[in-house]
């Protein structure tokens, strides 16, 4: 009977901060959703208005889940400095004082696409897969070790490039998209790098074992899967084969 061979030191020793960051960034190179077929259709002007409406309506479910997952993370930590930094993310999405927030800017986008705001907010027309996918992200952040939960936000490292591409591509290719409705993406060009810098520093400082480092890389991979799966569902329902499930939004 063969015994399991022990792990070599190179498989258990802590990665250097540089190696750890490189492993995280490599996930984006391989798996970020800018490589998805639906993304390329969206930014390349290959979708009709109804398909763009379906994307914006379903993506609202994800946008609405983000401040809830951030609240779940804050509720778990006794680290006051982490709470003070992380609560800005909730303000960024929900708004604070005179700042309307990212969710309001997203609803300006759906307003501009001709979608009824109450219908969007209700999430009734979202794909069943979309709702389950985004809730899996909230659950992940609530249940995983804190440093791993923080790491799941690190897809923000890859976000500015996709936002720039989205702004340019959609403004150029769709006559029903105006500059004012792209405000959400323009604001994220500054918010996402700020958030990513903090989260990356936190993860590099607080992942204390090789196993924790690898779990953090796995969290980034999981988050990329969340974003990818949402586009899978959209592509299946609204492009090919075009099978919209009962109760979901039907373009008119």
Automatic annotation (TrEMBL):
Q: What class of enzyme is it?
A: oxidoreductase
What reaction is this protein's catalytic activity? 6-(2-amino-2-carboxyethyl)-7,8-dioxo-1,2,3,4,7,8-hexahydroquinoline-2,4-dicarboxylate + 3 O2 = pyrroloquinoline quinone + 2 H2O2 + 2 H2O + H(+)
Record PANTHER family: 4-AMINOBENZOATE SYNTHASE, PQQC-LIKE PROTEIN
Which InterPro entries does the UniProt entry name for this protein? Haem_Oase-like_multi-hlx, PqqC, PqqC-like, Thiaminase-2/PQQC
Keyword entries, A-Z: Oxidoreductase, PQQ biosynthesis
A single Pfam family, by name?
TENA_THI-4
Which pathway features in its UniProt record?
A: Cofactor biosynthesis; pyrroloquinoline quinone biosynthesis
**MF-aspect GO terms:** pyrroloquinoline-quinone synthase activity
A single BP term in Gene Ontology:
pyrroloquinoline quinone biosynthetic process
Belongs to which family? Belongs to the PqqC family.
Q: What is this protein called?
A: Pyrroloquinoline-quinone synthase
Q: What is its EC number?
A: 1.3.3.11
UniProt function note:
Ring cyclization and eight-electron oxidation of 3a-(2-amino-2-carboxyethyl)-4,5-dioxo-4,5,6,7,8,9-hexahydroquinoline-7,9-dicarboxylic-acid to PQQ.
Organism (species): Methylocella silvestris (strain DSM 15510 / CIP 108128 / LMG 27833 / NCIMB 13906 / BL2)
In this protein, which residues make up the domain named Thiaminase-2/PQQC? 23-232
């Amino acid at each position: 009977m063969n015994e399991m061979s022990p792990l070599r030191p190179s498989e258990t020793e802590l990665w250097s901060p540089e190696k750890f960051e490189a492993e995280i960034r490599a996930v984006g190179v391989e798996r970020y959703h800018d490589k998805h077929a639906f993304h390329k259709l969206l930014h390349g002007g290959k979708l009709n208005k109804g398909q763009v409406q379906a994307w914006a309506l379903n993506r609202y479910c994800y946008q609405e889940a983000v401040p809830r997952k951030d609240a779940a993370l804050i509720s778990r930590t006794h680290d006051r400095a982490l709470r003070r930094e992380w609560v800005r993310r909730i303000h960024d999405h929900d708004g604070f004082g005179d700042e309307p927030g990212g969710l309001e800017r997203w609803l300006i986008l759906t307003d501009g696409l001709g979608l009824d705001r109450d219908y969007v907010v209700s999430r009734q027309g979202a794909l069943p897969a979309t709702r389950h996918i985004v809730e899996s992200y909230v659950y992940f952040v609530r249940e995983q070790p804190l440093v791993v939960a923080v790491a799941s936000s690190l897809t923000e490292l890859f976000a500015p490039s996709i936002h720039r591409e989205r702004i340019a591509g959609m403004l150029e290719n769709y006559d029903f998209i105006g500059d004012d409705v792209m405000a959400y993406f323009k604001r994220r060009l500054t918010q996402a790098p700020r958030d990513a810098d903090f989260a990356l520093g936190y993860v590099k400082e607080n992942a204390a074992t090789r196993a924790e480092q690898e779990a953090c890389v796995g969290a980034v991979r999981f988050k990329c899967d969340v974003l990818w799966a949402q586009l899978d569902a959209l592509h299946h329902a609204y492009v090919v084969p075009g099978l919209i499930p009962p109760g979901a939004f039907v373009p008119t």
